[in-house]
Specification:
The chain is of the alpha/beta class. It has one domain (8-14, 26-321): Rossmann fold. The protein has helices at 8-11, 24-37, 104-107, 155-171, 188-200, 217-223, 230-238, 243-250, 255-259, 279-286, 308-323, and strands at 44-47, 56-63, 69-76, 83-89, 111-115, 176-186, 206-210, 266-271, 294-299. A nine-stranded mixed β-sheet has the order 1-2-3-5-4-6-7-8-9, with helices on both faces. The chain is globular.
Length: 328
Amino acid sequence: MPLTDLPLEELREFRPPITEPDDFDAFWRATLAEARAAGGGRAELSRVDGPINRLVVEDLTFPGFGGDPVKGWVVRPESDAPLPTVIELVGYNGGRGLPAERLHWAASGYVHVVMDTRGQGSGWGNGGDTADPHGSGPAVPGFMTRGIERPEDYYYRRVYTDAVRLLDAVAEMPFVDRDRIALTGASQGGGIALATAGLVGERVRAVMPDVPFLCHFQRSVLLTPDQPFMEITRYLAVHRGSEEDVFRTLSYFDGAAFATRAAAPAFFSVALMDGIVLPSSVFAAFNRYASPDREIAVYTFNGHEGGQLHHWQRQAAWLGARLLPGNG
């Protein structure tokens, strides 16, 4: 597959204007306040018996947007002391799957929390367990256009809020060191991690957006040659005249806008032959990222798979230097 975007030297200087509505911050303050006021009870953990018997495995249910129950997994070492924690968000149409799918972080000494993505979990992997009880108007199959005519109704308003509410819940868990919480995720998960970092500021110590999706919507919708951004293209091809409303909605959910509000050190990745997430959309967020402590790993000859476990090893070294005693 050929390079899908600008040359690397141009990507490193790519700082396009990103449309931000005047009420961006007020919109998100109100959204999160509404979600917290909705209640839904405390997070619940239930220990899971199974073949993983050298780590603690727990089924998690926590209140997300609207107080809706959202599922997750917690996998962690046995410890009498609070541990550094990694919250992982999942890629597009994947679910939390099974605990055995992701043991790397727990085996490395971290509490590892995986969030199910509401309504998703049937496109790949081993399934999801969280419903999205909120409807939308007409939409293209998939999730990108659900409620896209109004920011208040847009699908990712609920998902981003779920991730912030998960952080609220995780910070109260007795085995979590609330001063050493990191966010990570690949593709959609990277985009959700980036948005969450922008919404919570210094409440997280690090963020690792891996080939992050959901950035620079204007360019991505116009130029990305593959799904899922093409869901929006197809919607606009039918709903002629909706372009202004659609892009206004998307301006509240752009990872490049959240990047300017993020305070935590960040370790991004990008793949230069990626036809699902354009490299320029990743650099649009990376080059605007607010913390001076930021790095990006470039995988020149990879598509959307990026660095895979090679990149995880780099993440583990980078994060260990910031969160594990004796590694700094």
